[in-house]
Design a protein that fits this description.
3 helices, 25 strands, 11% helix, four-stranded antiparallel beta sheet, five-stranded mixed beta sheet, Neuraminidase, single chain, 355 residues
Length: 355
């Protein structure tokens, strides 16, 4: 009898392992291959060799990049150097990046590890750059003021909070206020492993301001990119491992109400909102397994989606760019400016194409 119970228990454990392994492979799109979609006049951005995980384009074409992210379990082509914030002018004929000096002596640059970024422009046209950083595997939001004439960033403040143990991306709604996607990737390797493997949906979205901090949405399988509609009425949230983008209605008290969900056959990463049309541009991982288990002989591909009329009954989803990793590995973000598409990656290069 004891032997029978033991064999039954072993069988149940093996079945559970097999089911979770299958689910894990499905959530990571382990077996999907890329169907190439090309764009004209694509050129690699000069000066980016260790990733452009996130980017923000200002109305005048100046563009911020976060680069050099050290991400647990993810490839790094420059592991010994701290991260940087880069600047590029998309109005130049052959744009190239330069590193922004960080002023103020209040930030430890040796442990600077920039991740998601977001900008806020106030009534005086002062530009604030909010940067998620992971010094020593923790999470902070670093607040900077952009000094355009000096081409530098003035560090103003470091934000930490117990509800923000492992921030992924942010959407600024003020100089020190933002929505943040929050997972367990940096918080604890043990939690991270279980969350990734079992799909425990532990991720959430937090609203932060100096006066109030609260969880405004939860139950996500790896909450990732986040963006806000042009009219400020809706918040878009990418659920990476569920292959979904959620649309939430934003209220005057900063709470969120779920409105609709779109599903895809790719892992959706950062979300950029078209400043003219309001369309969503999404950097995606067609095969997420290759991101977490890097092989130079079989590198992760890249994919960019454009979502038009997302609030309608029948949104239009277009694969604008797709590539098998020969040119661009591990796309995380895409944004547009005057007929150009700028594409960034978690650890590789960045690409600029004509639309």
């Amino acid at each position: 009898m004891a032997k029978l119970l033991g064999l039954t228990l072993v069988g149940l454990v093996l079945a559970l392992y097999k089911n979770h392994r299958s689910s894990y492979q499905t959530r990571l799109n382990a077996f999907r291959e890329v169907t190439p979609v090309d764009l004209p006049n694509c050129t690699l951005v000069k000066g980016i060799e260790a990733g452009a995980e996130d980017l923000e384009i200002l109305p005048n074409g100046l563009t911020f990049f976060s680069t050099g992210l050290k991400y647990p379990g993810i490839k790094s082509f420059d592991p010994s150097k701290p991260g940087k914030i880069l600047l590029m002018d998309l109005n130049e004929k052959e744009p190239a990046v330069s590193e922004l000096a960080i002023m103020g002596n209040t930030l430890d640059m040796s442990s600077f590890n920039p991740h998601g970024i977001s900008t806020f422009i106030d009534e005086d046209n002062t530009v604030y750059l909010l940067v998620v950083s992971h010094p020593d595997s923790s999470s902070t939001v670093e607040v900077f003021k952009f000094q355009e004439e000096e081409r530098s960033l003035l560090h103003l403040k470091t934000i930490t909070h117990e509800l923000l143990p492992s921030i992924n991306d942010i959407a600024a709604v003020g100089p020190e206020s933002f929505y943040a996607t929050n997972d367990h990737y940096f918080a604890d390797p043990y939690l991270r492993s279980w969350e990734m493997y079992l799909g425990l949906s532990w991720s959430n979205v937090v609203y932060y301001s100096p006066d109030k901090v609260r969880v405004v949405a939860d139950g996500f399988d790896f909450a990732n990119g986040i963006g806000i509609s042009l009219d400020g009425k809706y918040v878009y949230i990418a659920e990476l491992l569920a292959h979904k983008i959620h649309v939430y209605e934003k209220h005057a008290n900063w709470t969120l109400t779920p409105l609709k969900v779109l599903s895809f056959d790719t892992l959706v990463d950062n979300i950029s909102v078209d400043p003219v049309t309001g369309d969503l541009w999404v950097g995606c991982h067609p095969n997420g397994m290759r991101i977490f288990f890097y092989d130079s002989e079989n590198p992760p591909g890249s994919e960019v989606l454009r979502i038009q009329s997302i609030l309608s009954e029948d949104p239009k989803v277009t694969v604008v760019y797709a590539e098998n990793g020969t040119v661009l590995q591990g796309t995380t973000v895409a944004a547009v400016y005057k007929g150009k598409l700028l594409i960034g990656t978690v650890f590789h290069r960045a690409l600029c194409c004509d639309l």
